[in-house]
Amino acid sequence: MPEKPFWETKTLDQMDAVEWESLCDGCGLCCLIRFEDEVTGVIFPTRVACRLLDQHLCTCKDYANRKTYVPDCIKLTPGNIEALEWMPRSCAYRRLHEGRALPSWHPLVTGDPNSVHAAGVSVRDRTVSETALDDPDDALDFLAPDLDADRSDG
């Protein structure tokens, strides 16, 4: 019987740094600018990406130093995942925290780092950089509630 993969046998707290980082599917959804409705508290994604997101690769252009350039960038940890309800519903960190399996298109499942793009889950080439906006509030013109849908397969 084959050995189960680490994400099926370990909790998020038990994973080492390499395992933790490999959970990221590279969709880019967590790097979108979001707005919170002041009345309802609902958080809406936009099609405006963080200045450091490579819009084609869906990776951070300077991951190691991102907090220097984007001070409000949130470092995801096992200790804060529960509080980050705005994380994409398809996000591996969120799914595993909620006791759900990785989706079939996840690169750890497929062995292909491009499977997230082939499945149409990523924001590859479908965003505008925040640096292209004249004013940060202009991101409201790019509200994208469709990107808040669960993009996983079960």
Overall morphology: globular
Percentage of residues in strands? 5-15%
Count of runs of 4 or more consecutive helical residues: 6
- Which strands sit side by side, in order, in the main sheet? 1-2-5
* Tally of domains: 1
Spell the H/E element sequence.
Answer: HHEEEEHHHHE
What is the mean pLDDT? 94
Low-confidence stretches: none
Please count the beta strands (DSSP E, at least 2 residues each): 5
End-to-end CA span: 25 Å
Relative helix content: 10-25%
Radius of gyration, CA atoms, in whole angstroms: 16 Å
Which sheet architecture does the biggest sheet show?
3 strands, mixed
The structural class is alpha+beta
Descriptive report:
The protein is of the alpha+beta class. Helices cover 18% and strands 12% of the residues. The protein has one domain (6-148). It has six helices and five strands. It has a three-stranded mixed β-sheet, with no helix packed on it. A two-stranded antiparallel ribbon has the order 3-4. 28% of the residues are buried.
List descriptors.
globular, 154 residues, 5 strands, 6 helices, three-stranded mixed beta sheet, alpha+beta
Map the helices and strands:
Blueprint (H helix, E strand, L loop, with lengths): L5 H4 L7 H6 L9 E5 L6 E7 L3 E2 L4 E2 L5 H4 L22 H6 L9 H4 L4 H4 L9 E2 L25
Parallel strand pairs: 2-5
Antiparallel strand pairs: 1-2, 3-4
